[in-house]
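I have been asked to look over a protein record a colleague put together. Alongside the sequence sits a line of tokens, each denoting a local backbone shape. Please read both lines and tell me whether the tokens look consistent with the sequence. Take the sequence as given and treat only the tokens as open to question. I have pasted the whole thing underneath without changing anything:
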Amino acid sequence: MTSKRGPRRRDRHGRGLRGPIAPSYVPMARARSERFDDLVLDAVDRLRPKWGRQLSAVEFAVEEVPPLSELGDGPGFGAGPIPLGRAAGARGQSPASIVLYRRPLEARARDRDTLGALVHDTVVEQVASLLGLSPDTVDPGYDERR
């Protein structure tokens, strides 16, 4: 004979429910994707004083990896490098957009500082592509970091 039990009212050993490992205000409590989003926002904010008007109609987004349509046939088949981002101009009702790919950028960075610089350079390159300018015109310090 099996009886149905009601919902469990406490955890298995009676010590209470588990809480978060770190308080929410500590950087460790934030997910990697959230920290990456912050790096992108910081990079965009650094460009806003000079390019705010042009960037006001641009949507910035982050995706994990590039879609298959942007990749070649794979390694060894003449595929180009894996893209770090893409820029698309406005079309009809769709605004201009810049998308950064989180995983390829993280794979190329040694540490958080390197990742921040790489994200900034990628944002600068995509903004330059969208505006039809050179990256060093968008950010004069771009060539110094190369």
